[in-house]
Every structure is written in structure tokens, then in C-alpha cells.
Amino acid sequence: MIGRAFCEAAAQFGAHVVVADISLSNPKEIAKGLAERNNVKCAGFEVEVENKKSVQALKDFVLSEFGKMDGLVTGHQNKSHLIFEPFEDVSEENWDKVVEVNMKGTFLLCQILGSYMAEQGNGSIINIPSTYSVVAPNQNLYKGTKMGCPAAYSASKGGIDALSQYLASYWAAKGVRVNMITPHGVWNNHEEQFEKNFANFSPMQRMSYNHEVAPALIYLLSDASSYVTGNNMLVDGGWTAW
């Protein structure tokens, strides 16, 4: 959901957007709608971010369609199949699935697409860690619901935070800025009890919406943030302030 809002916002500001996602999300159709609504050239590409050949194919596609690459947003994640699984019961297979998509996927995208931007001497990379790479999950948030947050999710997202700061320093002299956006509590048809719990723990007493996260993306992608790198922009309604 956030990824679509990111794509829409970028297109609204005149960016040529490549929607890269798994086939189930139908990225080509999403790109077609973006292009029609915003009168900009957009393209869709099916990718498996944890597969190096697939990410390499994405790079080749972008360069063949647009001739260059100025920005990268790694908005993918995997955690849903572990929501109901307690830490004591997590299998190695399930742990690996989350870490491969979240951590390895971000590594491959940054290595393959980010390296191109570093070679060209310009670019902005925005990775998406999590509130739970900043603070631990409040287990009381999930009381009375069927939800939860798996340890593998927190661990993998924490790795994204560390990798982003590393790359911000590593590529700074080559004109590539690497930042992060950490949204929290973005509404997506959540259980009513979860919404109530969330409101009790949030200073703003509500969940957020996709359109409230997207402006941070525009700032970090654009020259408005030309002296900003290694930053984690928290769009969390004050969740981590107390």
C-alpha cells in the first residue's frame, strides 16, 4: 500500500516511475494507470528482490527504457506469514524467508542499482526500515488481536538501518545520498481492536495514512534534501518520542 502511494506521489511530481514488484501485484497495470493519470512515462517490471539475476534484469530494463537511473526506493517487505508465530516456534525456514526478502533484497537492489548511480556520480536511495528497527514492539499493542510482529522482521529491518548508514558514508563522495523513511501504523484495514490499541499508545491517538508518508519520499528524492544523507526520517506520529 505504501509503495503504491510512493509511486503515485513521484509520478504526480513529474518523475518517470518504474514499478518493480512481484507478479501477484501486477506492476505493469499499476504503471499503466500511473502514466495515464499523471501524463508521465512509467513502466512495470516483475522482480524477485532476493534473486540476483532478477535484480540485474531490473537494472537492464530500467536503462533500456529510460537510459538512466536517478533514484531507488526499496519498499519491499516480508513478514505476513509469521504474524501469528511466536519466537519460540520460529523455524529456520521462516526466518530465512523474511531475512532473504527484507535484508538480502535491499542489499541486492543497493548493490546492483546503487552501484550504477555511484558510477554515474549522482543518485538518491531511500530504504525502508521499521519502527521496530528503532524500538522494540510494544507487545500490549497486540492484545486482543490476531496480530503480532515476528522477531525476524525486527532483525531484518535493523539490518537495513545499519546498511543504509554504511552506504551513506561509503557513497557520499560519489554523489549518492542514502536515506531512510520509517513509517508506523499505516492504516490498511486493520482489526478494530488493533486500531483502538494503537490510538492508546500513539501521541496523535490515531493511525496514519499512505498520503501522510509520501511527502517524505518526495523530499528525500529531490534536490530539496541535497545535504541530507544517512538520515532516518521517522513518520510515526510521535510513537518513538515517548
Write the layout of secondary structure elements.
Layout: H1 2-12, E1 18-21, H2 27-38, E2 43-46, H3 52-66, E3 71-74, H4 92-120, E4 123-127, H5 151-171, E5 176-183, H6 192-201, H7 210-221, E6 232-235
Parallel strand pairs: 1-2, 3-4, 4-5, 5-6
Task: Give the gist of this structure.
The protein is of the alpha/beta class and 242 residues long. 45% of the residues lie in helices and 12% in strands.
- Fraction of residues in β-strands: 5-15%
Low-confidence stretches: none
What series of H and E elements makes up the topology? Answer: HEHEHEHEHEHHE
Rg, please?
Answer: 18 Å
Number of strands: 6
Q: Largest sheet, described in full?
A: 4 strands, parallel
Q: Mean of residue pLDDT?
A: 94
Strand order of the largest sheet: 3-4-5-6
Secondary structure tally, helices: 7
Helix content: 40-55%
> Helix/strand/pairing class, anyone?
alpha/beta
For the termini, the CA-CA separation is 27 Å
Coarse shape: globular
Can you offer a commentary on this structure?
With about 240 residues, the protein is α/β, with parallel strands linked by helices. The protein is about 45% helix and about 10% strand. The chain has seven helices and six strands. The strands form two sheets. It has a four-stranded parallel sheet, with helices on both faces. The protein has a two-stranded parallel sheet with strand order 1-2. Helix 1 packs parallel to helix 2 (about 25-40), helix 1 packs across helix 7 and helix 3 (about 50-65) runs parallel beside helix 4 (about 90-120). The radius of gyration is 18 Å and the shape is globular. The relative contact order is 0.14.
